[in-house]
Structure prediction request, 234 residues.
Amino acid sequence: FDAIATAAEETRNPKRDLAIGIVGSMLACAAIYTIIATVALGATPFTRFANSPEPLALILREISQPGAAHFLAVTAVLTLPTVILAFFYGQSRIFFVMARDGLLPRGLARVSKGGAPVRITVFTACVVGTIALFFPLDEIVALANAGTLVAFSAVALCMLILRRRAPDMARGFRTPLGWVVGPVAIAGCLYLLASLPQKTQIWFVAWNLVGLVVYFIYGRSRAAKAAQIDASEG
Prediction:
């Protein structure tokens, strides 16, 4: 449901379709996780599989189902690329908007004759491939988790700020019980962020400091120029 949000500009009816996609996928994922967790805990004590890299396959072997465990392992390998492609799609759209706003070279935001963002897709592949080449997977995953938690916290905080600064602004979406949901979401994300390894937190802070330096040196002035150009063309 995180990747779905980045497709807002490519949906025919964002107000309807995004709400169904995000809420629907979130409810489906929550239901599937709850059912699997309940069955797993009923089959084997959690201490047996808590630290296993393949807990579900381990549980199936524990209950004398080696064939099902092997099938599960194979399907996990086959379905993992679909998850990666979904994240890749979302990241390419984020880079596309950044390029359009001037935070990246605006030439990357050009689309092909068929309307496909080919340039930014190739750029995203190069960035992702370079990171995957030089950094261990576990560190990449931990940093990605930290970034996601901070992004979700920022969304919740911005929602509360807009409730105060622009209460009458037209909204395609409105969070029910915003002053309850917002603080709870921020607190939950910060709690999970604090539970990450200290090494990850240090790297995350360093990475963001580098990003801020790049923004103030390169992105800020170009974003302002891009806004002026868009205003003059509009």
Summary: The chain has a mean pLDDT of 87. The two ends are 33 Å apart (CA to CA). Residues 198-233 form the longest helix (36 residues). The chain has nine helices and no strands.
